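Sequence in, structure out.
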Amino acid sequence: KKIKDSARGKPYDSVLGLSGGVDSSYLTYIAIYKGLRPLAVHVDTGWNTPESEGNIRKLATQLGVDLKIVYIDKEEMADLQLAFYKSSVKNCEIPQDHAFLAALYKEAAQIGVHYILTGGNLASESILPKSWGYNAGDLRHLLAIHKRFGTRPLCNFPTLSFWKRYLYYPFIRHIREIRLLNYIPYNRGQAKSFLNEKFGWIDYGAKHYESVLTRFFQGHYLPKKFGIDKRKAH
């Protein structure tokens, strides 16, 4: 109700991050089922699987959701991603995650909505130890690694500073992140079956494997280098 009331008379009442994975796909269905009017935003970092791209098109088309694709500069993205692997930090997913969040906030501010809907949820992510990763929103951390190991300037890569995320956007622009799946009974296995039967959604494997790079990172790099297997926690 708060989301609906915040944008009466506007074409959209929220921005919804859609990756093509099960969490964001089911989130899209729930948002429409509950009568919300989101603009679905997909941030393309160049690592999509064919399955995830197909899922995005199916959900957007069949649910009648407007879709905007934000393309991240591929050369800058690859250079920053490589810098993180050279640094040997545990969370090499930060470049992707940071770009996702920065792009969603920017889009919400541009179209004048106060809510960002994301697929993050306690059902499949609440038992991840903090020592297994690091905050993707730490811009100083990202820029420090890029400065030491990067080879090209970040001219187009979207960034989100501490000031913007925790002061400017919430208190001046009144933009909030909402994890809508935490407000409903959410079972990923049942969600996959439902999405497949209703929309022809295709499973791509383990959690977050809708990204080729994440599949390598979680399925090989973390277990081999650090002995961390996120698949067990998920």
